[in-house]
DNA sequence: AAGTGGTCTAGACCACTAC
DNA sequence: TAGTGGTCTAGACCACTTA
């Protein structure tokens, strides 16, 4: 493996930004994989030819973006999506009284399709490019209250099958990381009032054409490329979508 | 004026956290007001008895929380809400094609009420405490698409009147800061599908009882206290509510 | 030219984890 | 005890703004 040391591609003007980009490059080529320790600060400082303080500033930003995680006395790790740690960063549905619960996920459809122009545009791929398309029903407190339609470019998830998808142990984003080396680093979501389709109405136990919350999500990898398109319908009769601008999610 | 120098209240264990808390205290007692320059890093380092590097780390965090703003060569300023800078941090409604526009705001009601138990709980005040309550209609592209019901505790906004509210020059949050020294530092929002009331349906040009997006927002000050309660109804036929987890709002 | 914040250094010392 | 990250220092030099 060729280690990344040169840093001419994204100047940015400052040393620590260059170091940060070099580290992102090392992460995207999988030199350091999800969950692994990266070299110590001292070694990285030597490798990139900067002082420890400068190296630390680069790591500071990567930690702030949830790409790395520091553990005093242990080392710095490549952040891994885990049900018990980062799940609620991406799952923002809460019961009206504020209680958060893990959803029970059931895969109810899996197929291969071609990208429509709208979805191709969102994913930054060609019209008609091949996609995996599957549907999950999510239950909270033993009642299905949301349905996810998820689409993944085949080129990014080579060899994905319904059975490997079903047999995953942790969250979907953990699975992307583990099986395909894709680190979801952020999402862009657009919310609006939508209408349930006929097939969905049965699953959500709503009248056909009922109003639900519609969420269109594009997930981005650490290299800023779109990796997943998701359309979600939520029954918000008893649940809220939470959108806070503060770190400390004020517990009402 | 007594300057804040002692830092025993919130130990946190580290020097820079103490400095940060001391600076937040100075901000809440209005030693430095919105828009003003704060003393230079060198002077602040002397005042708090720390090195410049440590002082900088405290300011780094305050800048990351949008409380301070640095300007190289000029100084560090207390962030001021401005229509042209921070407005879209709190106004997250975008046309379906992604275009952002400033809303045209019209005050359509102003009164004084007593807090209901539900709203008192959200604002952390007593049941029945006095509130200012007013309603704004917001138009985008020359059509009213959202209605804000806003409630403010009288104790935090002493002497607020309909005319001072109407005659404000900039945004509402700029007004809070300018006229009452209240710095909105973050919000907590809960979204769901709601129904328009009869009076709203006329303004929004929707049928009575139509489904709209309902947003319940509590705004918090830099000292973590709730300062505003807001209930918004949005017609999302042509607009989306944007909720991104990334800094760089990916422009679709 | 003087003053401000922005970057970078080289090292000390502390706190935590593992063995 | 050795190795890791966490904090803090004291100062150099650069880039920007105003006068």
UniProtKB/TrEMBL annotation, chains A, B:
Superkingdom of this protein's organism: Bacteria
Family matches, as CDD domains: WHTH_GntR
Keyword annotations from UniProtKB, A to Z: DNA-binding, Transcription, Transcription regulation
Single Gene Ontology MF annotation: DNA binding
HTH gntR-type domain location: 13-81
GO terms (BP aspect): negative regulation of DNA-templated transcription
Signal peptide (from-to): none
Membrane-crossing residue ranges in chain numbering: none
Record-linked Pfam families: GntR (PF00392), UTRA (PF07702)
Protein name: GntR family transcriptional regulator
Organism the protein comes from: Caballeronia pedi
């Amino acid at each position: 493996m060729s280690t990344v040391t040169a840093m001419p591609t994204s100047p940015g003007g400052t040393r620590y930004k260059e170091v940060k980009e070099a580290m992102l490059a090392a992460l995207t080529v999988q030199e350091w994989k999800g969950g692994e320790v990266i070299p110590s600060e001292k070694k990285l400082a030597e490798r990139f030819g900067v002082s420890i303080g400068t190296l630390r500033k680069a790591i500071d930003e990567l930690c702030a973006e949830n790409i790395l995680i520091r553990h005093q006395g242990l080392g710095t790790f490549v952040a891994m999506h885990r049900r018990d740690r980062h799940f609620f960063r991406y799952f923002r549905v809460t019961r009206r009284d504020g209680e958060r619960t893990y959803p029970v996920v059931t895969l109810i459809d899996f197929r291969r399709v071609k990208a429509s122009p709208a979805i191709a545009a969102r994913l930054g791929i060609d019209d008609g490019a091949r996609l995996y398309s599957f549907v999950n029903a999510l239950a909270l407190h033993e009642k299905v209250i949301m349905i996810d339609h998820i689409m993944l470019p085949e080129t990014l998830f080579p060899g994905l099958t319904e059975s490997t998808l079903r047999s995953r142990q942790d969250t979907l984003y953990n699975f992307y990381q583990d099986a395909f080396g894709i680190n979801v680093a952020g999402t862009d979501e657009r919310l609006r009032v939508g209408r349930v389709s006929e097939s969905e109405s049965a699953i959500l136990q709503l009248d056909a054409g009922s109003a639900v919350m519609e969420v269109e999500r594009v997930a981005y990898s650490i290299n800023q490329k779109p990796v997943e398109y998701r359309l979600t319908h939520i029954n918000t009769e008893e649940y809220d979508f939470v959108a806070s601008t503060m770190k400390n999610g004020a517990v009402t």
